[in-house]
């Protein structure tokens, strides 16, 4: 039975994630909240609408249509940057009052991302797809709220899911005004960070239909809210309201994934730490989570085994901001397992990564894929970013992991403030040098936020910052995008982004988005690296009892053949 203030007998708390957020892992925020609330006798039901076929189909239809219009040479990494268009368009679509202004705004949104002008007929074709989306969403939500006898609706929100979430909150207020609506999630890390004009405007605009907002870590706050232990007259809560008390992650139970359709996600998820010990200028992790904390390797290992057995998957995406502080100890624990667990996560290219023995240990411990924020090949830009990583460390890190067969997914930032053509060329050159050791290369245009990033304050002090869209767009988008008036300008960033993509294509470095592309990328990896980890399809197969690779990590051997690899004496084998 639920022990909380808001539910009468039979009524439920429903926590959901709405479209669009790729169903790669089951929603971790919800799974952590569910598990914590359960420990305290509060039951919740959960839903991830992103696994519904109809939503997936509409998503693809929107992108297929958009792709037809955008000139090929301007498409960049289409499915990544295209999400910006989709989410802004979706938002304007539910909020506009005057059609002409709306069409003008959509034109600007598309131009901003793809540097081309879409025409009214094309916009109207996209609008029909969005109409269909919202019609379907409405049906889905009404069914859901009824089926689950909802008393509290909590949505976990990212930028990509904000339009659908706003629609859902409004609809709930209209159809079931007694339901308490609560919002939390990753969106408060950046565009809606504390103290930003965006948050002020958002709070004002959503007053009628979002009752409570929880910013940042949610476990303690949500429980207290449900128990009626937070001031009722207040609408927005953060850890400041509980004297900065943070969750003791070592005493929290494993995430609870029951209630999600797990067969739809390639990965399970878990975490070893919260927050980040580093302070890269463009990042918001430390603001979002407060002080850094981690679990012991033994605890994590036990938790991964438990999760793997309970939900029958042995491939994990670790949702830590960074794995560096725990990776070696964790690999040592997991190496002891008879049936391996494979894990994927974010890593910094620091000194310990550029060491073959470490890389081999991690590989034997099941480390499957490193998500490397490499950002730039220019020492000057890395310095400006406060990365505290050298280009030589980047090279060593990527090469060592590739040698061990671990997939190296590399992320690059294009157009960091002050990035010159020469800096950008260094990034292209570095990628070329590392071409066979890079599993995947993906890039993002530099994104600036008035609040939330480590450097926000300094950037605002030094540069003129202006809203990207005109004043009348404010009501349609709810969240403003701000631009810094500095070099390189948006058009140049767009040109570089397209050059980046073409460069990687020429070098045959993939950036897979579909399962078919991943299959091809995994094949390439196997051809390039003797120790390559099993391809993703094998894990999907595992769920159907294909256990061919069950202990393949025990057979990983050190053979010094790789091209870019630092030899144990520190010499380079070119
Ligand atoms: C793992 C991860 C990924 C993975 C998996 C994503 C996926 N599809 O599932 C990958 C690498 C693919 C990825 C990609 C991207 N990501 Co990402 N990612 C993360 C990361 C590191 C962990 C997410 C997570 O599981 N966190 C752990 C859970 C427990 O935290 P949480 O969800 O925030 O939930 C807590 C609170 O927010 C709160 N809460 C959450 N929901 C609710 C609901 C209620 C009702 C309440 C009360 C409280 C509450 O309580 C929870 C427990 O404390 C986060 C950063 C981070 N450390 O959180 C970024 C993050 C979510 N990603 C982000 C971004 C921007 C992206 C990309 C758009 C980047 C890009 N341009 O390519 C893509 C989008 C991909 C997509 N469409 O799926 C941003 C989102 C910010 C935003 N504007 O919404 C984040 C926050 C990073 C950041 N600081 O900027 N990402």
Describe this structure in words.
This protein is of the alpha/beta class and 574 residues long. It has 3 domains: 4-51 and 146-242, Cobalamin-binding domain (Rossmann fold, 3-Layer(aba) Sandwich), CATH 3.40.50.280; 54-133, no CATH class; 266-449 and 508-539, Aldolase class I (TIM Barrel, Alpha-Beta Barrel). The protein has helices at 28-39, 53-69, 78-95, 99-114, 120-147, 162-175, 197-205, 219-227, 285-289, 297-311, 327-335, 356-364, 379-385, 391-403, 421-433, 456-462, 473-477, 490-506, 515-528, 536-542, and strands at 12-17, 45-48, 150-156, 180-184, 212-214, 236-237, 268-270, 273-274, 293-294, 315-318, 342-347, 367-375, 407-414, 440-445, 465-467, 482-484. Strands 2-1-3-4-5-6 form a 6-stranded parallel beta sheet, sandwiched between helices. Helix 2 (53-69) runs antiparallel to helix 5. It is globular, with a radius of gyration of 24 Å. The termini are far apart. Residues 15, 21-22, 24-25, 28-29, 32-33, 80, 154, 156, 158-160, 182, 184-187, 189-191, 214, 217-219, 222, 284-285, 288, 317, 319, 321, 371, 444 line the site of cobalamin.
């Amino acid at each position: 039975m639920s022990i909380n203030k808001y539910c009468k007998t039979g009524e439920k708390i429903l926590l959901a994630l709405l479209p669009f957020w790729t169903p790669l892992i089951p929603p971790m925020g919800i799974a952590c909240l569910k598990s914590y609330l359960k420990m305290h006798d509060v039951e919740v039901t959960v839903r991830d609408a992103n696994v519904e076929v109809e939503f997936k189909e509409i998503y693809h239809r929107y992108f297929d249509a958009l792709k037809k219009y955008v000139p090929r040479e301007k498409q960049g990494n289409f499915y990544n940057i295209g999400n910006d268009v989709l989410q802004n368009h979706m938002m304007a679509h539910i909020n506009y009052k005057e059609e002409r202004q709306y069409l003008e705004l959509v034109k600007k949104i598309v131009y901003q991302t793809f540097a081309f002008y879409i025409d009214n007929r094309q916009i109207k074709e996209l609008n029909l797809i969005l109409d269909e989306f919202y019609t379907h969403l409405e049906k889905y939500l009404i069914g859901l709220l009824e089926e689950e006898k909802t008393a509290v609706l909590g949505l976990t929100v990212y930028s990509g899911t904000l339009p659908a979430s706003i629609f859902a909150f409004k609809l709930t207020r209209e159809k079931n005004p007694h339901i308490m609506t609560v919002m939390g999630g990753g969106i408060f890390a950046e565009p809606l960070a504390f103290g930003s004009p965006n948050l002020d405007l958002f709070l004002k605009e959503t007053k009628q239909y979002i009752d409570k907002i929880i910013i940042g870590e949610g476990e303690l706050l949500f429980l207290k809210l449900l128990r009626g232990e937070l001031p009722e007259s207040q609408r927005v809560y953060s850890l400041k309201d509980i004297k900065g008390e943070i969750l003791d992650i070592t005493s929290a139970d494993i995430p609870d994934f029951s209630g999600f359709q797990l067969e739809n996600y390639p990965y399970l998820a878990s975490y070893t730490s919260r927050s980040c010990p580093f302070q890269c200028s463009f990042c918001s992790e430390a603001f979002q989570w407060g002080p850094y904390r981690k679990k012991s390797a033994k605890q994590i290992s036990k938790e991964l085994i438990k999760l793997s057995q309970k939900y029958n998957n042995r491939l994990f995406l670790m949702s830590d901001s960074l794995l560096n502080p725990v990776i070696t100890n964790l690999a040592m624990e997991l190496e002891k397992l008879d049936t391996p667990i494979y894990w994927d996560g974010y890593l910094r290219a620091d000194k310990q990564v550029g060491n073959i023995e470490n890389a081999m240990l991690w590989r034997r411990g099941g480390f499957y894929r490193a998500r490397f924020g490499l950002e730039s090949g220019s020492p000057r830009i890395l310095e400006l970013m406060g990365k505290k990583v050298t280009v030589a460390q980047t090279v060593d890190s990527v090469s060592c992991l590739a040698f061990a067969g671990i997939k190296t997914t590399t992320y690059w930032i294009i157009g960091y403030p002050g990035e010159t053509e020469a800096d950008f060329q260094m990034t292209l050159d570095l990628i070329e040098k590392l071409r066979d050791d890079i599993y995947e290369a993906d890039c993002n245009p530099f994104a600036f936020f008035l609040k939330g990033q480590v450097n926000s304050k300094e950037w605002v002090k030094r540069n003129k910052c202006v809203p990207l869209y005109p004043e009348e767009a404010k009501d349609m988008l709810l969240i403003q995008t701000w631009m810094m008036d500095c070099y390189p300008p948006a058009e140049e960033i767009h040109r570089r982004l397209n050059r980046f993509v073409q460069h990687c294509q020429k070098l045959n470095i993939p950036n897979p988005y579909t399962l078919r592309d991943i299959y091809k990328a995994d094949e390439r990896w196997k051809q390039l690296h003797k120790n390559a980890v099993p391809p993703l399809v094998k894990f999907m197969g595992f769920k159907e009892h294909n256990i061919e690779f069950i202990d393949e990590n025990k057979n990983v051997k050190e053979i010094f053949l790789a091209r870019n690899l630092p030899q144990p004496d520190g010499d380079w084998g070119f």
